[in-house]
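Title: Comparing notes on inverse folding

I've been comparing how different people in this forum approach sequence design from structure. To keep things fair, I'm posting one structure and asking everyone to reply with a full sequence. Here's the target:
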């Protein structure tokens, strides 16, 4: 991974530079969460707008997943930054991810904490990369021990 010339410092280029992703910023302090309710509502609004289902279908499917009623009005209130008395329950956020078959809300939460959400093959590829890194460190340590044994130390 390399930084692409002219790219923001938190954007990495993989291989030929065709694929970019921004490294999420780890929160520095409690102040970073001051507007979190507003950000959650905005993120949900964006997700609802991009959803392949209309809100009525989405509400019905979320209701089925949670085995309790979620109305289109509840989704509208959860996604409205102005509706301060209506906060998105985490269970509804996860149910939305299940219904939409993508970790949209989970990814939002992970990015706010300085991480990313990886699913399926992406998670396995990340694990493989971690194992390969550990393997390289073990080989280097093994070589050091072999050198020490060879030199009689």
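Reply #1:
Here's my take.
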């Amino acid at each position: 991974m390399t930084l692409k010339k002219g790219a923001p410092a938190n954007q990495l280029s993989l291989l030929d530079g065709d694929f970019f992703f921004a490294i999420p910023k780890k929160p520095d302090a409690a102040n970073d969460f001051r507007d979190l309710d507003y950000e959650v509502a905005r993120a949900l609004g964006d997700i609802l707008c991009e959803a392949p289902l209309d809100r009525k279908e989405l509400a019905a499917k979320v209701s089925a997943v949670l085995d309790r009623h979620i109305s289109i009005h509840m989704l509208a209130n959860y996604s409205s930054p102005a509706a301060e008395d209506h906060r998105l329950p985490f269970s509804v956020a996860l149910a939305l991810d299940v219904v939409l078959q993508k970790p949209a809300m989970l990814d939002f939460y992970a990015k706010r904490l300085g991480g990313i959400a990886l699913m399926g093959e992406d998670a396995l590829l990340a694990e493989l990369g971690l194992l390969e890194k550990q393997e390289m460190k073990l080989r280097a340590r093994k070589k050091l021990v072999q050198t020490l044994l060879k030199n009689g130390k």
